[in-house]
Amino acid sequence: MARELPVSILIVNPNSSKSMTEGLQPILADLMHPQLVLQYLTGPEQSPPSVNDFTTSVISAAHTFPSLLPLLVPETPGAPDAYLVACFSDHPLVGMLREHTHKPVIGIFEASVTHALALGQPFGIVTTGKYWERALTDGVQRMFGSGNIGGAFVGVESTGMTALELHDKQAEVVAAGISAAASRMVGRGARTIIMGCAGMSGMERAVQEGCGGERVQIVDAVRSGITTLEGLVRAQRM
Questions:
Q1: What is the sign, positive or negative, of the torsion defined by CA atoms of 177, 178, 181, 187?
Q2: Which fold has domain 109-221?
Q3: Which Pfam families does UniProt cross-reference here (predicted)?
């Protein structure tokens, strides 16, 4: 039997905060195995340090895309097998990459929402700034043609912090903000909670503390993206 080829996934952080990218690596280390290679790319310094709204989404995509173009040329040595856009939004970079490659491309938003829906319980999203409450709700509607997916989606609660502040503020302040948002989400009926920001990876305990003893499943959006892409690549190789 031929030896199975490794799957290489490029995790793209389209903002310019290298600390955010570096913070993901130890959190995702337990997903690593000999047949999975994770690579990382941070947006250039011209990209905004944090994606906080539609404008910064577009700017981050415009500045990050040129650095990815050389990897999209067919047969480029060292090019990854799949691309994960690690920004929790309906991010334009996903569509831009799909225009230029037949390899799997997914954003952590769509990966985690699909994951949560498959778990079969009402789900909601805990995210960063207030802007994302409406934007992510609209994103779910675009994905499924329904604002609440027949009652499966109960909405979005924000912490009031930017993605950058999740790393820069005191840990106790960040945890309190996430816990409070999770508590409100449970109050709305969610029994699955998506951590709606790449910067929240590894912060499951704060979500659990806000759930008040309720049995709630927690979805890490970045991990959802990695496992989804690994499966897609292997399925295409069959």
A1: negative
A2: Rossmann fold (3.40.50)
A3: Asp_Glu_race (PF01177)
Q: In angstroms, rounded to a whole number, what is the distance separating the alpha carbons of residues 79 and 101?
A: 11
For the chain, the domains span: 7-107+222-237, 109-221
pLDDT digits (tens, 9 = 90+) for 157-201: 999 888 888 878 888 899 999 999 999 999 999 999 999 988 888
Cα–Cα distance for residue pair 18/87, rounded to 1 Å: 14
Query: Alpha-carbon torsion 113, 114, 116, 121, what sign?
Result: positive
Q: Where are the alpha helices (DSSP H) in the chain?
A: 18-27, 54-72, 92-98, 108-118, 131-144, 163-168, 171-187, 204-210, 221-237
CATH of the domain spanning 7-107+222-237: 3.40.50.12500
Q: List pLDDT tens digits, range 102-131.
A: 999 999 999 999 999 999 999 999 998 899
Query: 199-217 burial string, b = 16+ CB within 10 Å, else e?
Result: bbbbbeebbbebbeeeebe
Q: How far apart, in whole angstroms, are the C-alpha atoms of residue 26 and residue 123?
A: 27
Tokens 């970045």 belong to residue = 222
